Amino acid sequence: xxxxxxxxxxxxxxxxxxxxxxxxxxxxxxxxxxxxxxxxxxxxxxxxxxxxxxxxxxxxxxxxxxxxxxxxxxxxxxxxxxxxxxxxxxxxxxxxxxxxxxxxxxxxxxxxxxxxxxxxxxxxxxxxxxxxxxxxxxxxxxxxxxxxxxxxxxxxxxxxxxxxxxxxxxxxxxxxxxxxxxxxxxxxxxxxxxxxxxxxxxxxxxxxxxxxxxxxxxxxxxxxxxxxxxxxxxxxxxxxxxxxxxxxxxxxxxxxxxxxxxxxxxxxxxxxxxxxxxx
Length: 279
Prior knowledge:
Layout: H1 2-38, H2 42-51, H3 53-86, H4 92-104, H5 107-118, H6 125-130, H7 139-165, H8 168-175, H9 180-191, H10 193-209, H11 212-218, H12 228-237, H13 241-268, H14 270-278
């Protein structure tokens, strides 16, 4: 038994060491290098890189696209998860497959599909042009592409949690005379609030960092359709590495703020989260 326990301790230490080494090499080191390179030329150069007009426009556009796509996916993801977890209907498996579709399709392909549909030579292109509506190479195209690639995150966090909770609480509330809307607001939503929160975090992180689909539908027009990832690519391709790392550090900072918020809420409400998961 002593030998087995000793081997267990050694194996545990090796696994922890390998995990920490992996995290340091592939996560912490690249993240640290972004901030180091961003500040390599001093605060003045950093400030100039993140406050020049094209960078400011990219920051505003990134936040705007995420601000539209994330709430939309929250509403639609909640509705889809509620329907799948709480009701039986024909086509349920098809709906689940459609929710998973963005995971199996390359973001570049999804962006190309939107161009083929809404571009000047696309299926709806002539009608859009006749009615002076522009989707591709404009804000609507960026939002559509972002919504598509980020849609599964909220729904996929909610579906298994809602299924594990069952429908007993909702059925009891309906039996007592509560309306469907009140049942959702007072029972269903509070029970899944932490799963919803995690889904929102994942959705928001992907929305701000999306590159492939957005690159296809944006046209990469400086000051108009460039999001932060696209602006970083353009700066790097023009050998303006310090400015590219400066803008990239803002993206990394947003990710760290999101992670810090998640950690803070988990620490502050750990008992509530554990109780929700057990339920």
